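Let us practice reading a record.
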Amino acid sequence: MADIFQSHLQQRPAVWVFTSATLAVGERLDHFARQLGIGDACTERWESPFDYGRQALWFRTQGYAGSCQRGLRRRNRGTGGMDPRIQPRGRAFLLFTSHRALRAAAHSLESRLPYPLLVQGSAPQAELLKRFRRLGNAALLGTASF
């Protein structure tokens, strides 16, 4: 890949900036730079501003949709859970590794949540994000491409 990228660099001299949440291997970016033949690249790595320990749940199971549903219910326990007299807080973004898993979870959750369910593919991404922010209590389901 380095040869191909180097020919692009020569044809288009400019400043190139690469950003990603997954470019680093461990704490270093030199593996990525070597792959592109840019060993003299200036690199910088920043920690995520997100508190994943407090703000994320990780599911890795065959019963993914069920795990998501249980996770959303568990997340609501602190604000009344499924009690209809108490406004649930929602506000969850679930990211799936495949469209199949996304559709299965959406189907499983669509009539079981006491707050709006927004699903990638049902509207443009910008519109879904706008609704998610405006509603304040929705669950947004997307794939890695979201």
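A brief commentary: Residues 23 and 32 are 6 Å apart (CA to CA).
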